[in-house]
């Protein structure tokens, strides 16, 4: 049978075992002392001598000292020998209990009562407001992105998409860092109220990003992911050269292969990509963007290549930092399914082809380590589209030359002849302008001291104002390139 034990702190259920199939027998034979023993034996563990039971609700309002040795008719305290039947107590009825502060034997700590097996103290009350405040509710970011737009240097964008399309055939994932500049727009959004213009209070992004350079680090990849070392020696050198040229890291770009992700995968990003973006935004700031290169079939059944720019929401970054996502401990991003982490050789390639259908459920939803609320439902997987915020994308002519072969590619390889070709192909330009090519300068670091190349990179910023590379560096670079 079931009794409800109400205290000043709330109500809890107490199960009394049936002695046989006859409920009346159980009621006749069960005494208050049996009930008190059950309360003491339950996980909350209030000792018998600390309990005071009554059938009268006003019992909880009394302030007199508790006594349980005899029946107290004034305070309606129940005696240990009284049976439930004699008291008129039935299945589901309420008994009212007061208790002194007790010492729990398991912890030897002074607490009003011990802790339930569920982890919630016996009789603890929780308000609706408290429960709502503890819930993590997932919603779309209505305020929009933190940047007004991202603009690509046309030459750099074309060089990236041409490689993943014509050389890799969109069969392999490729990653690159975006280096460029930031500018502030001078416009602000206002609303009119009663004939007067007033600030709307809505967040208006005023930063415009201009990506002039794509640096593709050393990487290995398959159809689902590109793996790279963000802090290897070459990446550090690339960062130094980009900064010397007046650029900063403003985002990343990667392509999505044409691997079949299943009919259910309709999100623009997979869980791996969403958590990667959250990781990078947490590291590089709110104005960091991610650009995806993908191909699609148009109405004429011809394949087209498109660029899409995104940020993940502030909530996504916050939950990432607070450990809500199920992540791979080594990489810090969502785990890949076994089929997508293979190298694509032999039996692994066969397994990959047979298992692509399982990628859809994993790919279109992000797994959480604990439940969150989405549209009034507790879930442990969130549709990736809830995290994404689209960023307008544009194009421009960059200030860095883009004709030099790009590092870490299968084809074409870089060599000193490319330096000579780059210099001779720009007659009439200053030496600084001829060398203002990120990929050329990065290659020069293999032929010269890195600090010298960084100094040359800084001097390439001055060509607009008539500045140039020092004569000593010109002679050295001409000798490396074989220019007499």
Give the key terms.
single chain; alpha/beta; Ubiquitin-like (UB roll); Cytidine Deaminase, domain 2; four-stranded mixed β-sheet; elongated
Categorize the overall geometry: elongated
Quantity of strands, as a count: 21
Quickly count the helices: 15
Tell me the CATH architecture of the largest domain.
3-Layer(aba) Sandwich
Work out the radius of gyration: 35 Å
The stretches of 5 or more residues where confidence is low (pLDDT under 50) are 67-73, 103-119, 190-195, 197-201, 341-362
General description of the model:
The protein is of the alpha/beta class and 484 residues long. It has 3 domains: 2-125, Phosphatidylinositol 3-kinase Catalytic Subunit, Chain A, domain 1 (Ubiquitin-like (UB roll), Roll); 140-188 and 203-396, Cytidine Deaminase, domain 2 (3-Layer(aba) Sandwich), CATH 3.40.140.10; 416-481, no CATH class. 27% of the residues lie in helices and 24% in strands. The chain has 15 helices and 21 strands. The strands form 6 sheets. The protein has an 8-stranded mixed β-sheet. Strands 2-1-4-3 form a 4-stranded mixed β-sheet, covered by helices on one side. Strand 13 (219-221) and strand 14 (226-228) form a beta hairpin.
